[in-house]
Design goal:
The chain is α+β, with helices and mostly antiparallel strands and 175 residues long. It has helices spanning 51-55, 58-63, 71-75, 80-89, 117-122, 125-135, 139-148; strands at residues 18-20, 34-36, 103-104, 107-108, 110-114, 156-161, 168-173. The radius of gyration is 17 Å and the shape is globular. Bound molecules: zinc ion (ZN) (2 copies). Residues 104-105, 162, 164-165, 167 line the site of one zinc ion.
Length: 175
């Protein structure tokens, strides 16, 4: 069975938000070969949801839950319909702190997992400077960080992409 497509999280197997598993989904009761592994914010204790119950919005509706914090998107004035798609019908991602879904051009970005070391090393110019300003980090500290950086490590640097203009946006997270 082919996985549903998630516009704002196009490669959930690569990011390990979804993994192959024999576990049954608590929402639909079926074992469909894949299970979701990242956050699900709900008052109930729900550990296993299948990608299909995420994509249909069934699990979010049934448990009044969400996979992603909506505040950063609402704060950026992303249209509610898109915020709902990201928060209620898109897999979240693994992060140290609460995830901060990025936005650009007035819309939600696609999540592309941990940035590769090579792309960060090549990153320069205005976007890098903006990132360093936002993180209050010097360029020396950035280079030092890169010399130890491992995808999936601490700190983590996540890669997002604007579906409208294609700009890549990185966001940093650590314990
Ligand atoms: Zn299900
Ligand atoms: Zn954009």
């Amino acid at each position: 069975m082919e996985l549903p497509f998630f516009k704002y999280h196009p490669h959930p197997l690569a990011t390990r938000a979804i993994v192959k598993s024999d576990l049954s989904c608590e929402c639909c009761g079926e074992a469909r070969g894949y299970i979701y592994t990242a956050s699900f914010y709900t008052a109930e204790q729900i550990d296993h949801i299948c990608p299909w119950c995420i994509a249909s919005g069934e699990a979010a509706k049934k448990y009044q839950g969400s996979y992603v914090d909506d505040y950063p998107l609402l704060d950026a004035n992303v249209p509610l319909e898109i915020v709902n798609e990201v928060c209620e019908r898109t897999p979240g991602y693994h992060s140290w702190q609460q995830e901060i879904w990025q936005s650009h051009c007035g819309t939600a970005c696609e999540f592309h997992g941990d940035a590769e070391t090579a792309e960060l090393t090549q990153w320069q110019g205005e976007p890098l400077q903006q990132f360093l300003d936002d993180e209050m980090m010097s360029i020396e500290r950035w280079h030092q960080l890169l010399s130890h950086y491992q995808p999936g490590g601490n700190p983590a640097i996540y890669k997002f992409k604007c579906p409208s203009c294609g700009e890549v946006i990185y966001s940093m997270d650590y314990t």
